[in-house]
Give the backbone structure.
Amino acid sequence: MIETRLRPLVRRSLARGRAVFLPVALILTAFQVMLVVIASTLQTARSFALMSAMMPIGVQQAFGPTVFMLASFAGLTTFGYFHPVVILALTLLGAYAATEPAGEVEWKLFDLELARAVPRRDVVTRSLVVSFGVTTLIGCAMMGGTFAGLVALAPAGSAWPRFPRVLDLAAHLVALSWVFASAGLTASALARRRGTAFGGVAVIVVSLYLLNFIADAWSKAAPLGPYLPFHYFPGFEVASGAASTARDLGVLVATAAMLVVVAYWRFEKRDL
C-alpha cells in the first residue's frame, strides 16, 4: 500500500529535480573518466616518479605519507571520489533533493497532497528515497565511469585501483552525502521556505568542511575532528587502505539515521 502511495510522489520529485540531478551525475561521471585520461598520459610519460619527488613539504605534513598515493596511476584515478569539489557537489545535491518538503509548504502544494489522504510521513519518506537514491546512483555512475575509462584508456601494464578500494571510496562519499541529505530533511521540517532550508544546510556543509581541513592541518584544532562528519571520510587513507572503514561508515550511517528520526518527528509536529 505504501509503495502505491509513494510511487507517484517519487516520480514527480524526480521529474522536478532532473534538471539538476542529471547534469551533476554526468559531470561527476565524466570527471572520473578525465582523471583516467590524465593518469594515462602521466603513466605514458613516466611522470609519476617526478611528481612524488616534487611533492611540497607542506602538503606532506598536512596530509601525511598517504598523500603520495596521488603520485601513482591507481591513486590518481581514484582522486575524483574525495576531490573537494566532488564531495561538496554530492553532499549539496543530497541536501537539495531532501529539502523539497519545505518548497511544497512554501508553494502551498503540501495542502493538496494532504487533501489526497497522503500521510505526512509519506512526504518525508518520498524525499528520503529520492535524496538517498539519487546520491547512491550517482556514486554507482562514478564507479562506472572509473572502470569504463580504465578498460578503454589505461595503458598496458598499468596498475589499476582495486575494485574493493574504489567501492570503499564511493561508499564513504555516498554515506557522507546521506548525512547532509538527512540534515536537509530535518531543515525542511523546520523551515517554511526551501531556500532557507537548503541555504542553511549549504552554509553548514561548507563551514564543517573548512573546519575539518583546519583540524587536519593544525594540531591545536585536531580535537575537533571526531565531531565533524567530514572527519569520517579521510580520502587519502581510504584510497590507500589505511582507514577504519567499518567505523567511519558506521558513524556516518548512524548520524544520518538520527537526523532522519528527528525529521520524521518534527514533520509530524510542525504547524502547516
DSSP finds twelve helices and no strands in the chain. The two ends are 25 Å apart (CA to CA). Residues 2-269 form one domain.
